[in-house]
Amino acid sequence: MAHAADSPQPRFFDRIRSRYFATWRDTAVTVIFAAFVAWVLWSLIEWAILGATFAPNSGDTCRGNLHGGACWSVVSTRWRIVLFGLYPFEEQWRSAIACMVMIVVAILSCVPWFWSAKRLAPLWIAGFATFYVLMRGGFFGLTEVKEQNWGGLSLTIFIFAGVSLLGMPLAIIFALLRRSNLPWIARTMALVIDVIRSLPLLSIMFTFAIVLPFVLPAGLTGDKLYRVIVGYALFFACYQAEIIRGGMQALPNGQEEAAKALGLGYWHRIGYIILPQAFRNALPPTINQFVITFKETSLVTIIGFFDVMASGRAASGTAEWNFATIEMYVFVGLIFFVFVFSLSRYGAYLERRLGVGRR
């Protein structure tokens, strides 16, 4: 052991040579792959920067100045449609502040000091209420804007936050019912979960948005946007319930039996022993579930909502800008990338902090 500890560490170039140029096959693969990556990067830089047009804010001028590169003028000219959709132009400051409020709430939720129900719940309730008042209006002298006119990034954030807030408590309830000692409860819950998971998300959204008003009384239907969020949250909860149940099953049976022997009641065992460890075990698939949920919010465009993806298509769908569709999709893709990458990095931080996979 002492001899291994005293042996010198290999230098950087020695490690590179041993990993990528150890044999002639390794050398050939490394050179070919490096040449391919260099060609892709150079082509991307040439299209996005060297040959791109930035200045003109007119579609015809930008089209005339193209030299095989991108036309970023479509972004500088049409970005308001992407971010705010159909929201009235003079009220778009409210949509911007509402988005910032939800982003700040999400960032504060990542701070360990807020990791308790007594602090997290008021934070999200206050943030959601502020978002709704700003977007909907009709209070404090703000002009009323119906949900049909919401759109862009603010609508995407609202749907994602609504689905997560409704879906996670539902998922915990579903997972506990699925583990019930009463067979008829456990089997009924298993049947409900399997049926909903067997259906495409789009069909559930369509059912809640279009079909449900024909079944429910007129006073219970509510706005289409909220029905879609409820349907999406139900779909989310069924998948997440199975993830949480998997985290529970990874725990040794002795822990719950020891808690029973100490005289702890059901809710104390679940709240202080089972669920915290189940969430730690299920953290990687839970983060994955949130990432998928955020990206699939773009499906709402099929049933008539003007989310950030639909707004991007509309922004480059005019006769003046229809040649710059790729640039607009790149801009929309960057928006998704920022949110999803941040979520993934935060998940990795949580895994390190909680020691997932190490204990």
Describe the protein.
There is one protein chain. The chain is built from 16 helices and one strand. By secondary structure, the protein is an all-alpha fold. Helix 6 packs parallel to helix 8.
Compact summary:
It contains 16 helices and 1 strand.
Topology:
Elements: H1 2-6, H2 12-20, H3 24-50, H4 59-65, H5 73-84, H6 92-109, H7 117-136, H8 152-178, H9 183-198, H10 201-215, H11 224-249, H12 253-261, H13 266-281, H14 283-295, E1 306-307, H15 308-315, H16 325-354
List keywords for this structure.
359 residues; mainly alpha; 16 helices; 72% helix; 1% strand
The overall pLDDT average reads 86
Main sheet: strands, sense, barrel: none
Distance between the first and last residues' Cα? 25 Å
With helices defined by DSSP (H or I, 4 residues minimum), what is the helix count? 16
The total strand number stands at 1
Low-confidence stretches: none
- Which structural class should the secondary elements be placed in? mainly alpha
In terms of DSSP E residues, the strand content is: under 5%
Identify the overall geometry. globular
Percent helix among the residues? over 70%
How big is the Rg? 26 Å
Sketch the topology as an H/E string, one letter per element: HHHHHHHHHHHHHHEHH
As an assembly, this protein is single chain
